[in-house]
Amino acid sequence: MAENKGLVPEKYDVNAKWDACLDLTVRRFVYSSFAGAFGGLLFFRSPVTRWASVALGAGIGIGSAYTDCSRIFYGYDAPASQDGKQ
Fold it and tell me: Per-residue pLDDT tens for 45-59?
């Protein structure tokens, strides 16, 4: 089976792309949720705002992972601006 590993070019190895993307998504979700929880404990007193900071951190982590996964799968970055000007 080891001799078949070199047959698929890296560009078309979808399993490796999915593995990298899932690993990236889980790590960024967990780390940014922890950062949101720490920030919530540090800055907010109400449990609602603490949970909101955890949710914001998780959303930032998922969003950044989505951006990097689209770059991994499609090979390009998101546009720099919405109006098309650089």
Answer: 999 999 999 999 999
pLDDT digits (tens, 9 = 90+) for 60-76: 999 999 999 888 888 76
Q: Which two tokens stand for residue 29?
A: 């979700």
CA dihedral 58, 59, 64, 69 (to 10 degrees): 90
The DSSP-derived string for the chain is -GGGGGGS-GGG-HHHHHHHHHHHHHHHHHHHHHHHHHHHHHH--SHHHHHHHHHHHHHHHHHHHHHHHHHHHHS-PPPS-SSS--
Q: Compute how many other C-beta atoms are within 10 angstroms of the C-beta atom of residue 6.
A: 7
